Every structure is written in structure tokens, then in C-alpha cells.
């Protein structure tokens, strides 16, 4: 073993010990390190801030997921026209064009299809087919549904900006870290900032993470991204790790825990070596891991196996970097 490898092994062992220690000292419940707002929670809400209810939640949510919309903010044509500052002239919404003539306001971009939601309508039957009043005991009430079209903020010109400015996280002074951004970009992974928290989806092969403004500190944000990048390396076309390639339904709790440990260690290794960020085993991550790995505890070797898989994942992410960047790192 060369001297360099020696140091690497030593560093890995040290980091892994830190993680184990953090896990053992933090047996509490995991709390997510980001805060959600109306726009980022993913719960379908209209431009007026009112949440949809019943089946409409499912209809809107499934459209959000299918089309990877960036927020859960929706509106009818009228609601969007009002939100975006249109002026109603007679029956038409007109765009304010400054000194120029107002023009009819278009809301959804060309080619965007509406999602149809349902509005319950209570129908009271008080007359018979001939129009005669029915006696009291023959009158009835029933509910029908009437569809109404809505557009997600992502389908509307200026809609995403409006939704985030109105219902999104407020600027919190956190600035992106150039080296970290470059590293993430260097991997070529698809990283979205949509609703639904932090996850990697093997079927869609993309990462989703909350926005930087939703975090309390920069390191928490980047450790989340690189944790998900750790999972991303497990895809069949990359390192083909069973924790990612096994269908979710067939994965045991221990297998989940093992994969989580790999992702977490990857984030620590990459953070320390390549992002210029000291990603320490964070309390919330330690607690998160603890909930998964209790079942692994019987076999301490499992932790070392995870550490070696994480070192592989970290090396894989580094190898994807353009030559110049990898050299410096
Ligand atoms: Zn994970």
C-alpha cells in the first residue's frame, strides 16, 4: 500500500468512526434539515393560497409528479390572470403593456394542456319531468361533479417566479458554493428543486432536493445533494448496487439501512475531499441513519462494508469530473 492510500484508509476509518459515534449519541427522532413553504411542500394549492381537497389533491398531485412541475401552485385562467396583474376589460383579461395598447392576456404557454379538476355541485330536484312541483317526500338532493380546467405555475409564463415569490421560501442569505455547484454539475446527474423533499428515484433517474433557501445552512444543503448523488451512483448503468437496483417492495429494512449508510458516508467523503466543505456527521443525519441501521448493528463488519462501498461511490463521482477539476481536488 502506498503512503497516499494509507492516509486515505486512515481518513476513511476516522470519518466512519465519527459517523458511528454520532449515530450512537443521537438516538432521537430525525428532523428534516429544511423548511417547507406552501409552494415547496407540493400540496396542491390555488393562486389564492387555498388548498385543494378530496380527489382534486390526487388529480393535481399526479399531474405534478408526471410533469415534474416545480411547485404545487395551480390556478384557473381567471385566477392566474388576476395573480399576474391582468386588467379585466369587459369580459376579457388584458395584459398591461405599459404605454402600448393592452392585448388579450394569455396565461398558459402555447401547447400546455390543462388539468381538469372537479367541483361538486349539489343538485336539488324539486319538480317532475313536466315541471310540476314535487311533493315534499319526493324531492331529492344529489351531488354531481363538474370539471374545471387549471394550470400549474410551471405551465404559465412567469408563473413559477410568481409562485415562488408569493408562496416560496424567502431569501435567507445563503449563497451557493461555487466548488460544490461545479462538482454537482460535473457528475451530469439531473438535479431538480421540485416539491416532495429530498430523494433519488431510480426509475426516473433523477435527484430532487429542496431549494437552498429552504435550508438553515449551506452545508446541510450540499450534504443532502451529495447524499442523493451517493444513491444516484447505485443505478444499474453506474455502480449497480443492490440497495438501488432491487425493487423497493423487495428491499428489506436492513438493505435500506445499508444503502442509506453508503449515501451518508459518500456525502461525508466527497464533502471533505472535493467540495471544500467539512460535512460532519450531522445530528439530523445521524438520527436518520439510526432509524435504519439498528438492524445492522449485530454485524459491525456491515459498517465497514458500507464504508468501502461509499469510498467506491465517492471515487466514481470524482472520476466523472472534468479533468482539470479532478486534478485540483
Ligand atoms: Zn438516502
Question: Could you describe the 3D structure shown?
Answer:
Strands 1-2-7-6 form a 4-stranded mixed β-sheet. The chain is α+β, with helices and mostly antiparallel strands and 329 residues long. The mean pLDDT is 85. The chain has 12 helices and 10 strands. It has helices at 3-25, 38-41, 55-67, 77-83, 159-167, 178-187, 218-232, 242-245, 253-274, 283-293, 301-319, 323-328; strands spanning 45-46, 73-75, 87-89, 92-95, 103-104, 115-125, 140-152, 191-192, 199-201, 206-208. It folds into 2 domains: 43-167, no CATH class; 170-329, no CATH class. Helix content is 43%, strand content 14%. The chain starts with a helix and ends with a helix. Zinc ion (ZN) binds next to helix 7 and helix 9.
Largest sheet: 4 strands, mixed
- What's the average pLDDT? 85
Structural class: alpha+beta
Global geometry: elongated
**Terminal-residue CA separation:** 21 Å
- Which stretches are low in confidence, meaning pLDDT under 50 for 5 or more residues running? none
Rg from C-alpha positions? 26 Å
Tally of contiguous helical segments: 12
User: Which sequence of SSEs, written as H and E, runs from N to C?
Assistant: HHEHEHEEEEEHHEEEHHHHHH
**Integer tally of domains:** 2
> Approximately how much beta-strand content do the residues carry?
5-15%
Lateral strand order in the biggest sheet: 1-2-7-6
Instruction: Please give the share of residues in helix.
Output: 40-55%
Amino acid at each position: 500500500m502506498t503512503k497516499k492510500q494509507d492516509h486515505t484508509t486512515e481518513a476513511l476509518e476516522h470519518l466512519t468512526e465519527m459517523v458511528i459515534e454520532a449515530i450512537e449519541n443521537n438516538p432521537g427522532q430525525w428532523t428534516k434539515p429544511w423548511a417547507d413553504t406552501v409552494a415547496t411542500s407540493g400540496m396542491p394549492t390555488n393562486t389564492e393560497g387555498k388548498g385543494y381537497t378530496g380527489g382534486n389533491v390526487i388529480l393535481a398531485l399526479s399531474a405534478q409528479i408526471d410533469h415534474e412541475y416545480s411547485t404545487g401552485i395551480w390556478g384557473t385562467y381567471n385566477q392566474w390572470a388576476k395573480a399576474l396583474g391582468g386588467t379585466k376589460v369587459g369580459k376579457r383579461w388584458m395584459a398591461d403593456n405599459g404605454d402600448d395598447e393592452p392585448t388579450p392576456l394569455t396565461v398558459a404557454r402555447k401547447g400546455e394542456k390543462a388539468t381538469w379538476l372537479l367541483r361538486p355541485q349539489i343538485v336539488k330536484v324539486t319538480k317532475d319531468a313536466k315541471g310540476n312541483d314535487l311533493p315534499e317526500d319526493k324531492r331529492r338532493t344529489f351531488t354531481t361533479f363538474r370539471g374545471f380546467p387549471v394550470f400549474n405555475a410551471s405551465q404559465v409564463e412567469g408563473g413559477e417566479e410568481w409562485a415562488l415569490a408569493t408562496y416560496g421560501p424567502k431569501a435567507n442569505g445563503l449563497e451557493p458554493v461555487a466548488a460544490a455547484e461545479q462538482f454537482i454539475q460535473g457528475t451530469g446527474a439531473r438535479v431538480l428543486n421540485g416539491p416532495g423533499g429530498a430523494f433519488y428515484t431510480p426509475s426516473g433517474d433523477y435527484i430532487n432536493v429542496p431549494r437552498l433557501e429552504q435550508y438553515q445552512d449551506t452545508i446541510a444543503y450540499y450534504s443532502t445533494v451529495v447524499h442523493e448523488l451517493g444513491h444516484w451512483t447505485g443505478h444499474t448503468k453506474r455502480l449497480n448496487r443492490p440497495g438501488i437496483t432491487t425493487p423497493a417492495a423487495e428491499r428489506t429494512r436492513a438493505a435500506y439501512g445499508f444503502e442509506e449508510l453508503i449515501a451518508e458516508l459518500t456525502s461525508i467523503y466527497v464533502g471533505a475531499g472535493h467540495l471544500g466543505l467539512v460535512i460532519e456527521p450531522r445530528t439530523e443525519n445521524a438520527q436518520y441513519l439510526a432509524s435504519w441501521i439498528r438492524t445492522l448493528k449485530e454485524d459491525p463488519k456491515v459498517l465497514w462494508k458500507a464504508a468501502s462501498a461509499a469510498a467506491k461511490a465517492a471515487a466514481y463521482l470524482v472520476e466523472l469530473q472534468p479533468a482539470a477539476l479532478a486534478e485540483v481536488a
